[in-house]
Amino acid sequence: MPETTSPERLPSRIGLLGGGQLARMLALAAAPQGMSAAVMSGKADDPAAQVTNAWKKGDPANENDLREFCADLDALTFESEFYDMNVVAKIARETPRLFVYPRPEVMAEIQDRRTQKALLDRFKIPTSPWVRVDSPTELATAAATLGYPFVLKKAQGGYDGYGTFYVRQPEDLARVRDVAPFPAIAEKAVKFSRELAFMIFRNRAGDVAVYPLVESRQRDSRCDFVLGPLKHRGLEAMVKRFRKALKDIDYVGALGVEMFDTGRELWVNELAPRVHNTGHYSQNALSFDQFQMHLLCARGGKLPQPVPLTKAFVMANILGEGETPPRLNAPLTGRLHWYGKAESRPGRKMGHINYAGASLETLYKTARRERAGLFRK
To answer: Which of 22, 139, 326, 335 could form a disulfide with 374 if both were Cys (CB 3.0 to 4.6 A apart)?
Structure first.
């Protein structure tokens, strides 16, 4: 596939689909790069809408809304993969000067777990054995093919554990059949010691930058802490496979790669075609953070290679624990990044804190202690 044209200059006006915290941090990163960020979302008090004077109320799935939003943009990108890419692709075809990244066709392939898994297989990227489950009647076939235990995942729209069901024994089939959404994929449950991740970026000229390997510590299927940098002997081979894959599909932008550490090997769990929670640490630990790097992918030339600013880092997510928002009751030694969400609820991401220093163990202890203080009355 021919590579995307690669102008040296950044687009002057970029549109962000989505109004959440990822779009907020992208918008905040745009101004220092000399870019103006416009946001389309549903509410004027959305996190991203609060930090731009170019907010437009609209529905990205509505063709007319999207066409109006893109009328004076140079580039368009996404904070989430859960948009109707058929609509986006149509607008892109109608507007040749508009650079959309990642390409809508690639986003469509990655947003569906069935085609995402097929993509991994095509490039021989290790991942758990899997089968399609397009209807409840195919569950028994999946069990016979994979054996127990296996995991059933909603094909589209699942995140942070939503749309994921564990099938540990034959007795679970009936229960899952009644509550699980279809179509889905079933994949063999993986025995792993920890969950790892890295971010990889590719620009319009095909230049690539890779961020450090990190550990993502989970709570209730949500990212709780991110620790790094780490080493793994399987990382070099994994990055090499992704370099080839991104070139072959002409991928432009940030890609989050979530993996299982099986001991000797790394297996990919999921891909996120956007800036990602496991890359938030970069705001205070690297010379260029993931939001700046994603924006820089819209131009050609060389991508800046990330330079570590610290020996170790920890990112602590601030998750809502009820209707009362977390409150800052004591000074923090880490850097607070607040999302400006008006409503709190259990598990909702309200912000994060980045810690940088010499000792990973010390940073992790500090992060746990200080974050716990946010919820003390």
So the answer is: 326
Alpha-carbon span 111 to 308, nearest angstrom: 31
CA 75 – CA 295 distance, rounded (Å):
10
Q: φ, ψ for residue 275 (rounded to 5)? A: -65, 155
Query: Looking at the DSSP assignment, which residues form a beta bridge with residue 204?
Result: none
Length of the chain: 377
Q: What is the pLDDT of residues 7-62, one digit of tens each?
A: 777 889 999 999 999 999 999 999 999 899 999 999 999 999 999 999 999 998 89
- Token duo for residue 77: 């990108």
Sign of the CA dihedral running 276, 281, 286, 292: positive
Closest C-alpha among 174, 170, 168, 126 to residue 151: 168
DSSP 244-257: HHHHHTT--EEEEE
198 vs 39: CA distance, rounded Å: 27
More confident residue, 288 or 61: 288
Q: Which of 307, 291, 290, 311 is nearest to 356 (CA)?
A: 311
CA distance 349 to 320: 6
| pTM greater than 0.90 | yes
Element (H, E) at 59: none
Question: Which residues of the chain form beta strands (DSSP E)?
Answer: 13-17, 36-41, 55-57, 75-78, 99-100, 130-133, 150-154, 164-167, 184-188, 194-202, 208-210, 213-219, 222-230, 253-261, 266-272, 312-319, 335-338, 349-357
Cα separation, 263 vs 194, in Å, equals 9
Q: Helices in the chain by DSSP H: which ranges? A: 21-30, 63-70, 85-94, 104-111, 113-122, 139-146, 172-179, 235-248, 282-285, 290-296, 360-373
Dihedral sign for Cα atoms in the order 118, 119, 121, 126: negative
Q: How far apart are CA 205 and CA 250, in angstroms?
A: 10
Distance (Å, rounded) from C-alpha 362 to C-alpha 21? Answer: 28
Structure tokens at 149: 């235990």
